[in-house]
Amino acid sequence: MAELPEALAGQLQALLGPRFSTARGDLDQHAHSESFHRAPAPDAVLFPETAEEIAQILPACAAAGVPVVPWGTGTSLEGHALATQGGVSLDLSRMNRVLEVRAGDMQVDVQPGVTREALNRELRATGLFFPVDPGADASLGGMASTRASGTTAVRYGTMRENVLALEVVLADGRIIQTGTRAAKSSAGYDLTGLFVGSEGTLGVITRLTLRLHGQPEEVAAAVCGFDDLEAAVECVTATIQSGIPMARIEFVDAATARAFNLHSGASLPETPHLMVEFHGSPGAVREDAARFGEIATEFGATGFDWAASPEDRARLWRMRHGAYHAAFALRPGAAGVVTDVCVPMSQLPEAVAAAARDIAEAGMIGPIVGHVGDGNFHSLLLVDPASEAELTAAKAIARRMAERALEVGGTISGEHGIGTGKRGLMAAQHGDAWQVMGAIKAALDPCGILNPGKLVPDRN
Amino acid sequence: MAELPEALAGQLQALLGPRFSTARGDLDQHAHSESFHRAPAPDAVLFPETAEEIAQILPACAAAGVPVVPWGTGTSLEGHALATQGGVSLDLSRMNRVLEVRAGDMQVDVQPGVTREALNRELRATGLFFPVDPGADASLGGMASTRASGTTAVRYGTMRENVLALEVVLADGRIIQTGTRAAKSSAGYDLTGLFVGSEGTLGVITRLTLRLHGQPEEVAAAVCGFDDLEAAVECVTATIQSGIPMARIEFVDAATARAFNLHSGASLPETPHLMVEFHGSPGAVREDAARFGEIATEFGATGFDWAASPEDRARLWRMRHGAYHAAFALRPGAAGVVTDVCVPMSQLPEAVAAAARDIAEAGMIGPIVGHVGDGNFHSLLLVDPASEAELTAAKAIARRMAERALEVGGTISGEHGIGTGKRGLMAAQHGDAWQVMGAIKAALDPCGILNPGKLVPDRN
């Protein structure tokens, strides 16, 4: 373990008292997140409670040249929250208050450590909900920082569409407000949009104003099976092109169905499936579900199973969200390399089929799931953690998937972000625009202390 | 008229031939736009045809310290396209090709000089349309640059939501690509979102990838009257809060109804009105229209007039879009000061009522219209162009309206942008965040040649 400069450590301890920690347990807890990425433990963990504290921490660290790495719940998948260059982990979990629900404006102000499930519990009585749903019970600050999305983005958008305004502490300690409470604004650069997805490299988010949505009057969900992967994915493309306002349309392949059977007590045919949900008035839900049923039947869908009760639906989506963990049942003890490409809708069938071919040809176990209504899909390549060869092979498959996505105008990351894991692909995706990101980073964080080594190019 | 440095003029003439113009007619045509803002004519007008030409023009101008002011159709309302500090007007009207329609992806690539009406004519046979509709037949590059919206934003979003990717020429001549053709991406800073709304201060947009939408199966539109302004606006708030997916919900006040009667051959009762439109399946449109009818009736709506045919609807919206010009019928020969605040939905009734009170107390003619489903409304304060006192009084009312919007968490501009007209209010809205915009500007345009004097603070 490196050590913080003594003067800085003293300054932080004076500011935070026992919320400045170098206890082994705290350091270790902030040394890994939910993926194969590993990093040394941070030199200290800070647990700030206010923006004003953070506004003192950042300039102090900048003066000492010490990295600051924001931490939400540690559920990110690309190593975003790891202190790869040492420094302090800025754990925002104590900033976990829902500050103000403005039901009439369908908005809420939250601190960054509030998780999406905690927020929705708090909203239950209002008739409103926050839709963005990446599966993990992530913090809303973390979700904004990675521009998270998930199963409902096809209907409600990603964090890009659902964050209206932010309070952000800059590296120099200024506390700024971005955005407004109005539904739209043409008053200058979209700084809210710039901080959303910036992965803690431009500032620390200390408050978020989020858009809420009315709980749908009627909800219907179903799962149905297909003979093969192509039929299932082509059904998705046809459904989206038909304009049916799907609330969710999720693909799971045959291997994932098997994982659900092994791990989640399901009894699905071990073939590809779609899981769908409809939101709206009773009439609209009936109409939409019927139109989807017609399209799916054209593509040979069978075994339609409607989740009628809220409990059945909760069970269905819990199973879907558990796909990541369930997949390990296919190879107990394995480590996982997750991919996250997103392609234009017309390119989706070929992109998924090509990924499946690559995985099969490599003899690898790599179940595929996807938020396919957005053209986004993941494979979880299961490798022996002791085998460098397998890890290398998995990374080669992941890289090929990303290259194929770029060839058809897609993106290397639909929702997981860049962190350290995808940084090697940024130049391929963005060309000179990656250097522009670096220039913006340098303008806002001239000392380079905010989550260094992530997302942007290294400083020349 | 200032003159360009001789070497630069020669360089540009060699590059562009007759598309480099210092003809009086060209200069004068680029010296004013659709508002009271005036500026000297530019020193030259350039008519580039390719991004590569622009990539030569910008570094040449940067080396000579000569401002470059992009020009679309000249329909902006805050002086964005005026060469207030001299330099060249970069007229993009020759870059007016629809490059590729990808119907299966519901996307189109266009050059920046394509206007929204031209695009929609080209799309007619595809079953798709581009929804953003600011009224004027503006260029899509200009609409992106001011983050334009208009009557349909309540349903389809603004340019922020409908621009997927851009090609941009930077001040140093690099041509970058931002965004992708995928529906979403978490791969780094949202540069597309940064350039949208940046008013030509960060780069010149040379290609746009736009999201398209399916032409609705069924459309219904109506106009209805209310006893007073409060009832009409409270009806809007109740409608939006009820979750009815309005395709349009527009407010016009009694003075505007009178202007329509005088100028557009309407025969409306001279009271406040709402104009609404519903898009969807036949069943959904029926349901939505019925629910809106119930709410409107609660607020005392009368004289429901349904525009059944496409021609009737076209007439209705042509009338609404003509409000700006029709208003001058209330005071022939007047000049207009346009306001553009946007407030949270719950604050809309009081914001509109307060604006109406201020206008009445000043004894001014100032009709109010609004894209009220977003909380956005405009007044057009009609002043004697020869009277400094009237202009001063109008500006004071506009300023008070903006201050009131800021007091309730709103914005000084919902859709028109900042240009020179609203720049004096930026510090009040953004505080230190305005300086952050300036830092980004300095990072991307270090010589400060791109549309100087607009949007961002002056360089220290």
> Counting H and I runs of at least 4 residues, what is the number of helices of chain A?
17
Strand content of chain A: 15-25%
Shape field of chain A: globular
Number of strands of chain A: 18
List low-confidence stretches of chain A. Answer: none
Which strand order do you get reading across the main beta sheet of chain A? 15-12-14-13-17-18-16
CA-atom Rg of chain A in angstroms? 22 Å
Quaternary: homodimer
Count of structural domains of chain A: 4
Q: What would CATH call the class of the largest domain in chain A?
A: Alpha Beta
Helical content of chain A stands at: 25-40%
Q: Provide the residue-averaged pLDDT of chain A.
A: 95
What does the model show?
- Chains A, B: Residues 38-215 form the FAD-binding PCMH-type domain.
- Chains A, B: One of its GO terms (molecular function) is D-lactate dehydrogenase (NAD+) activity.
- Chains A, B: It comes from Paracoccus tibetensis.
- Chains A, B: Its cofactor is FAD.
- The structure is a homodimer of 460-residue chains.
- The mean pLDDT of chain A is 95.
- Chain A has 460 residues and is α+β, with helices and mostly antiparallel strands.
- Chain A has helices at 6-16, 24-29, 51-64, 116-123, 140-145, 153-156, 159-162, 191-195, 229-241, 254-263, 282-298, 310-321, 323-327, 348-361, 388-407, 426-430, 432-444, and strands spanning 20-21, 44-46, 68-71, 88-91, 98-102, 107-110, 128-129, 163-169, 175-179, 204-211, 213-214, 218-225, 248-252, 273-280, 302-307, 335-338, 368-371, 376-383.
- Chain A is 36% helix and 19% strand.
- The two termini of chain A are 27 Å apart.
- In chain A, strands 15-12-14-13-17-18-16 form a seven-stranded antiparallel sheet, sandwiched between helices.
- In chain A, a hairpin with a 5-residue loop joins strand 8 (163-169) and strand 9.
- The longest helix of chain A has 20 residues, at 388-407.
- Chains A and B meet through strand 9, helix 8, helix 11, helix 16 and helix 17 of A and strand 9, helix 8, helix 11, helix 16 and helix 17 of B.
